[in-house]
């Protein structure tokens, strides 16, 4: 469980266990910080722990929507988290 908590970027403050009574590992999505589309095919394709975070499905979708609308390959996750906190 600590491993998951270390990777989980709790952007929206959702607590899957408390809310849905399920283990976060059964609920959260992996988000690649460096998009797979930007990787060179000749480079090792194994994803490093440092290149992923766990997000709730809603935050994961929101990040990809922002990336698409802003036409950027990456969204700064710290800025994304602050943006969400300001909306609450």
Automatic annotation (TrEMBL):
<dbReference type="GO" id="GO:0008270">
    <property type="term" value="F:zinc ion binding"/>
</dbReference>
<dbReference type="GO" id="GO:0003676">
    <property type="term" value="F:nucleic acid binding"/>
</dbReference>
<feature type="domain" description="HNH">
    <location>
        <begin position="25"/>
        <end position="66"/>
    </location>
</feature>
<dbReference type="Pfam" id="PF01844">
    <property type="entry name" value="HNH"/>
</dbReference>
<dbReference type="InterPro" id="IPR002711">
    <property type="entry name" value="HNH"/>
</dbReference>
<protein>
    <recommendedName>
        <fullName>HNH domain-containing protein</fullName>
    </recommendedName>
</protein>
<dbReference type="InterPro" id="IPR003615">
    <property type="entry name" value="HNH_nuc"/>
</dbReference>
<dbReference type="GO" id="GO:0004519">
    <property type="term" value="F:endonuclease activity"/>
</dbReference>
